[in-house]
Specification:
- The chain contains ten helices and ten strands.
- The protein has about 230 residues and is an alpha/beta fold.
- It has a six-stranded mixed beta sheet with strand order 6-7-8-3-9-10, sandwiched between helices. Strands 2-1-4-5 form a four-stranded antiparallel beta sheet, with helices on one face.
- Strand 1 and strand 2 form a beta hairpin.
- It binds adenosine-5'-triphosphate (ATP).
- InterPro entries: AAA+_ATPase, ABC_branched_ATPase_LivF/BraG, ABC_transporter-like_ATP-bd, ABC_transporter-like_CS, BCAA_Transport_ATP-bd_LivF, P-loop_NTPase.
Length: about 230
């Protein structure tokens, strides 16, 4: 579904991503794990078209997208839930969700899709008329995910959904991520929390200072000595 080939990204003189290649197949949860500053967010921002690569290609459903504008990429079915959620404060929960469907060409069944989001996240229905600023961190993560789902994505990009959340919320969010996969959405998940990410991922890649240093199934990576030592305190 998504093929990243020999991708390099620079910020001025700094090379954040160094000639990396990986792929995500339809129906999978693939995770990119790595420490702070390894380049995880840069990869997501490049897939979304917010950052342009200095070399390499990104192919989505058989077509190059690294030269395409972000809006068109979203229209083709890629949605990103950014690190730190970025919900629109000052707008209600429902208004935030409505913004998710803004770029959609097919406006059919918006009410049904909103209902599906409320069924997945009942707390958002309870709070639909509340200012998004009043939500807890976990609820804001749910709202950001709900907003992305309103674009009806084929591929969902999640940037550190566990960040800053209490363990009980992390468990709930990761359960929901698996559920979204079961209902047919492919997921690329970026995480510093290697333990939770590898438990639900079909496959993973370990990123270190802009390079992929290890790859395997979620189970293989969880069991690997390198991952245990570097990321799981083992
Ligand atoms: P984090 O978990 O902190 O977001 P990350 O793995 O997502 O880490 P990136 O944010 O992609 O890492 O950063 C990769 C490298 O690029 C880092 O060295 C970072 O300092 C640098 N970088 C990121 N954004 C910029 C920017 N806008 N300008 C200059 N350098 C940047």
């Amino acid at each position: 579904m998504l093929k990243v080939k020999n991708l390099s990204v620079h910020y001025g003189m700094i090379q954040a991503i160094k000639d990396i290649s990986f792929e995500v197949n339809e129906g999978e949860i693939v995770t990119l794990i790595g420490a702070n500053g390894a380049g995880k967010s840069t990869i997501l921002r490049t897939i979304s078209g917010l950052v342009k690569p200095s070399s390499g290609e990104i192919e989505y459903l058989g077509k190059p997208i690294h030269t395409v504008a972000t809006r068109k990429i979203v229209e083709q079915g890629i949605a990103q839930v950014p690190e730190g959620r970025h919900v629109f404060k000052g707008l209600t929960v429902q208004e935030n969700l409505d913004l998710g469907s803004f770029t959609r060409k097919d406006k059919q069944n918006l009410a049904g899709d909103l209902e599906a989001v409320f069924e997945r996240f009942p707390i958002l229905r309870e709070r639909k008329n509340q200012d998004a600023a009043t939500l807890s961190g976990g609820e804001q993560q749910m709202l950001a995910m709900g907003r992305a789902l309103m674009t009806k994505p084929k591929l969902l990009l999640l940037d550190e959904p566990s960040m800053g959340l209490a363990p009980i919320f992390i468990k709930e969010i990761f359960h929901i991520i698996q559920d979204i996969q079961k209902q047919g959405t492919t997921i690329l998940l970026i995480e510093q929390n290697a333990n939770v990410a590898l438990k639900i991922a079909n496959r993973g890649y370990v990123l270190e200072t802009g390079n992929i240093v290890l790859t395997g199934t979620g189970e293989e990576l969880l069991a690997s000595d390198e991952v245990q030592k570097a990321y799981l305190g083992g």
